[in-house]
Every structure is written in C-alpha cells, then in structure tokens.
TrEMBL record:
<protein>
    <recommendedName>
        <fullName>DUF2281 domain-containing protein</fullName>
    </recommendedName>
</protein>
Amino acid sequence: MLTTKEKLLALIDEIPESELDRVLDFAENLVNHPHDYWKNGSESSLDFWDNAIDNEIWNRM
C-alpha cells in the first residue's frame, strides 16, 4: 500500500509542467503557514457579511 507521500509524488508526475507552479505555491503556503492557510480564507470570507444591512436582512428571516 502506498503512503500518502508516495501517492502525492505519483500525482505530481502526472501534472503538466505548466501547472506545477500552482502546486508549488500551495505546498509552500502549507509549509510556511501550516495552520493559518485555511483559517485565513474562511475569516476573510466571513468579514464580507459583517455589516448592518446584511445583519438586518438575516435577522428578519
């Protein structure tokens, strides 16, 4: 049975060279910010909804 790392390396071999920069960027973000990578994306999405107009509409539902 293949390990997760072996599966990932096998998939990388299948990715076209033109797309590898996206994989590298993602991997570097995970290494440099292992716990913040996903959290920051969800927080920034929630900030958009934090306003009086949307709160009023939501509270009426």
